[in-house]
């Protein structure tokens, strides 16, 4: 009697294990399928270059961005610049958001078309600082460039993915564990995004000086001292970006 009960319990356990393994296998198949679909979308977009007309629209949009800023960038103004009807733009870009994604790709590709992995004798820290500096320069080349790039989708802004891929390869090849390399890379990039967004939206040094009058300095002395030091650095041509980035990395 006891042996029969044990056999039935073992049989139930075997059945539970079989069902669990089948469920996990189905889940793994779905995960693999989703990753393969993502890879296929990437392959399609990597080879899907904008047409000549699309390139002309993107370039005009970037020029308008420099003149008007992201908030005032409209398809109506863009169509007028191109001597087109606004509805015709939708034939080439289904929405303003898609156009902005292509603008982000153009901004990044201009800087990172020749990006290569870290050399074996190059410290990963220096490679990452140099790469993040290039990212900053790319976004600063255009008014509100950081907002355009930081908000872009990986499709069609595939250079973002290319940048991440090369960066991960460069950090992991130096001996860093993948999870740590990912954390370092994402933290550094987020710092660059935030820093440039602040640079492109903050008041000018002159406006800050006018704002920080004596009563304000008395109320917030530490802030006043920090602003004084920043103003002095600005006048002397010192840019603390790389020092701040190295501090984060270290």
Describe the structure.
With 250 residues, the chain is mainly alpha-helical. The protein has three domains: 1-48; 52-201, Tetracycline Repressor, domain 2; 205-249, no CATH class. It contains 13 helices and no strands. The chain has helices at residues 2-46, 52-68, 75-82, 86-92, 96-112, 124-140, 145-150, 158-172, 178-201, 205-211, 214-219, 221-235, 241-249. 19% of the residues are buried. The model has no long low-confidence stretch (mean pLDDT 85).
- Overall structural domain count: 3
**What's the CATH H-level superfamily name of the largest domain?**
Tetracycline Repressor, domain 2
* Structural category: mainly alpha
Helix content: over 70%
Separation, N- and C-terminal Cα atoms: 68 Å
Please give the radius of gyration in angstroms.
26 Å
Identify the notable features of this structure and list them briefly.
250 residues; mainly alpha; Tetracycline Repressor, domain 2; 3 domains; 13 helices; extended
Outline the fold blueprint.
Blueprint: H1 2-46, H2 52-68, H3 75-82, H4 86-92, H5 96-112, H6 124-140, H7 145-150, H8 158-172, H9 178-201, H10 205-211, H11 214-219, H12 221-235, H13 241-249
Helix pairs in contact: 2-3, 2-5, 5-6, 5-8, 6-9, 8-9, 9-13
């Amino acid at each position: 009697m006891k042996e029969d009960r044990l056999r039935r319990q073992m049989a139930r356990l075997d059945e539970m294990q079989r069902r669990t393994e089948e469920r996990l296998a189905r889940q793994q198949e779905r995960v693999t399928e989703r990753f393969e679909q993502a890879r296929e979308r990437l392959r399609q977009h990597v080879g899907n270059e904008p047409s000549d007309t699309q390139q002309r629209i993107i370039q005009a949009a970037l020029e308008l961005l420099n003149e008007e800023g992201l908030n005032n960038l409209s398809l109506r103004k863009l169509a007028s610049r191109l001597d087109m009807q606004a509805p015709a733009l939708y034939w080439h870009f289904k929405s303003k958001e898609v156009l902005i994604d292509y603008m982000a790709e153009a901004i990044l590709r201009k800087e990172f078309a020749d990006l290569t992995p870290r050399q074996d004798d190059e410290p990963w820290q220096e490679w990452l600082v140099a790469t993040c500096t290039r990212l900053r320069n790319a976004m600063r080349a255009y008014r509100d460039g950081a907002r355009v790039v930081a908000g872009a989708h990986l499709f069609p802004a595939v250079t973002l993915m290319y940048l991440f891929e090369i960066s991960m390869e460069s950090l992991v090849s130096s001996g860093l564990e993948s999870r740590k390399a990912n954390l370092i890379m994402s933290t550094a990039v987020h710092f660059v995004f935030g820093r440039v967004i602040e640079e492109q939206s903050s008041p000018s040094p002159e406006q800050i000086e006018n704002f920080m009058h004596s009563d304000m300095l008395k109320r917030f002395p530490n802030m006043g001292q920090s602003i004084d030091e920043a103003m002095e650095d600005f006048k002397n041509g010192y840019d603390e970006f790389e020092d701040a980035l190295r501090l984060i990395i270290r």
